[in-house]
Amino acid sequence: MAAAKKRPFLGGEDMDGKKVKGDLRGGKPHIAALILARGGSKGIPLKNIKMLAGVPLIGWVLRAAVDSELFGSIWVSTDHEKIEKVARAWGAQVHRRSPEVSRDSSSSLETIQEFVRLNPGVDIICNIQATSPCLHPHHLKQALAKITEEGFESVFSVVRRHHFRWKEVKKGVPYFTEGSSTVALNLNPNRRLRRQDWDGELCENGSFYITSRDLIEKGILQGGKVAYFEMGAEYSVDIDVDIDWPVAEQRVLRYGYFGKDKPEVVRLLLCNLSGCLTDGQIYVSAEGLEMVSLNTRDSMGICMLQKEGVEVIIISSIDNPIPKVMVEKLSKQIGCEIRHNVEDKLSEVDKLRKERELVWKEVAYMGNDEPDVQCLNLSGLSAVPQDATLVSRNAAKYACHSAAGRGALREFAEHILLLKKKAKSQMEQDRIPRD
User: Fold this and answer.
1) For residue 43, which of 238, 248, 242, 243 has the smallest C-alpha distance?
2) Which residues, listed in sequence order, are joined to residue 51 by a DSSP beta bridge?
């Protein structure tokens, strides 16, 4: 995950949590992206930050919004501290919604209206649904052009469906009375059309709603001169209940937006011993025996990578207090090489890369402190544990939710393997005729 970018903002709090006032916009309409992410989801608890294909659910739409480069500000409206932290990490500002619009009965429109009242400099609001992980920047660009270039006041996303609909029969209606038998709503049962002979119907897919400030203040989300933007069925994914999750994960691997660069195919992973594979602590028994803690999830992550053809090498720096004999035992335990007493990490990593005739994009690196920054920046994929230092977190492309020695390496391994699947899926997709 790339480091959070500073962005112009109107009001509320900046990235450091400081109160700020509105800014001047130079006469241009201020277009704000707004993602509503309440913490009290009934179907899936804290659904908006649950990991989907290695990324928090809300991270998929935030990445698309940031990379579209359309918005003067990008906001997440939430009532939950954990969601706020994830939102800031992915480049958004935070609108802490009031209790009045955080109830189960609160509507999206009420929450957007509160945001508009508190941010008088916003002219156009693009409400993006956090549960639409296959949203791409080009969807937002084409839809927003309908407002900025064609003069529409509101635009919303739709998908074309070819579903035959029938009228519901209410329970308890007596047999042979009016309303006891169903009737077709959008077809003639005696002349059923083939799919290719029917245009289908346009249905809201809930991905986004773009509306002018004036309409929101009037309590209207879709109105005025209104247009729809049609998205392909492959991009129309919604997550509401648990059974939607595995389907969404498979869809996002094939059709999700993974950033401006193509997914990297990693062939070599280098990882710090202390502070990444272990928690950095050395335990001393009453008999004077030294011990370190090794998480079986992390060792399994190494094994998973090796099975997929990724070489794993652990690096132990020269100032690491772990004795050589313990390092040798650890190497046997985890089944991979440990380079001990490395004085210059960048030189060592570059040497290993050149020996294997790899480019930097084929190298992944996991570090946790200032000496790792150069390697984190150069590597095609890089990660830090949850408890890494700020300077290393800012340099890494992915920040783990797990701490060092608590499954962080396993988490990064799964992220690498998911991107390998994505790269393979893209290659397969490129071979599919698009007509």
Assistant:
1) 242
2) 56
Are 411 and 298 a contacting pair, CB within 8 Å? no
Tell me: the pLDDT tens digits for 372-415?
Answer: 999 999 998 999 999 999 899 888 888 888 899 899 999 999 98
Catalytic residue among 103, 117, 165, 192: 192
88 is catalytic: no
Three-state secondary structure string covering the chain = CCCCCCCCCCCEECCCCCEECCCCCCCCCCEEEEEECCCCCCCCCCHHHCEECCEEHHHHHHHHHHHHCCCCEEEEEECCHHHHHHHHHCCCEEEECCHHHCCCCCCHHHHHHHHHHHCCCCCEEEEEECCCCCCCHHHHHHHHHHHHCCCCCEEEEEEEECCCCECCCCCCCCCCCCCCCCCECCCCHHHCCCHHHCCCEEEEEEEEEEEEHHHHHCCCCCCCCEEEEEECHHHCCCCCCCCHHHHHHHHHHHHCCCCCCCCCCCCEEEEECECCCECCCCEECCCCCEECCCCHHHHHHHHHHHHCCCEEEEEEECCCCCCHHHHHHHHHHHCCEEEEEECCHHHHHHHHHHHCCCCHHHEEEECCCHHHHHHHHHCCEEEECCCCCHHHHHHCCEECCCCCCCCHHHHHHHHHHHHHHHHHHHHHHHCCCCC
Q: Could you tell me which residues are beta bridge partners of residue 76?
A: 35, 94
Alpha carbon distance 370, 372 (integer Å): 5
- State the angle between helix axes of 137-148 and 57-68 in degrees (0 to 180), rounded to the nearest 10: 50
Residue pair 126/71 in contact by the 8 Å Cβ criterion: yes
Ramachandran area for residue 170 (φ above 0: left; ψ -120 to 50: alpha; else beta): beta
pLDDT for the residue numbered 413: 93
How far is Cα 368 from Cα 316, in angstroms, rounded to an integer? 12
Rounded to two decimals, the pTM is 0.67
Based on the number of CB atoms within 10 Å of its own CB, is 14 exposed (0-12), middle (13-18) or buried (19 or more)? middle
- Give the model confidence (pLDDT) of 411-424 as tens digits: 999 988 888 877 76
Is 97 in contact with 12 (CB distance < 8 Å)?
no
pLDDT of 263 strictly over 90: no
Report how far residue 276's alpha carbon sits from residue 406's, in angstroms, rounded to the nearest whole number: 9
Considering only CA atoms, which of 303, 304, 310 is closest in space to residue 335? 303
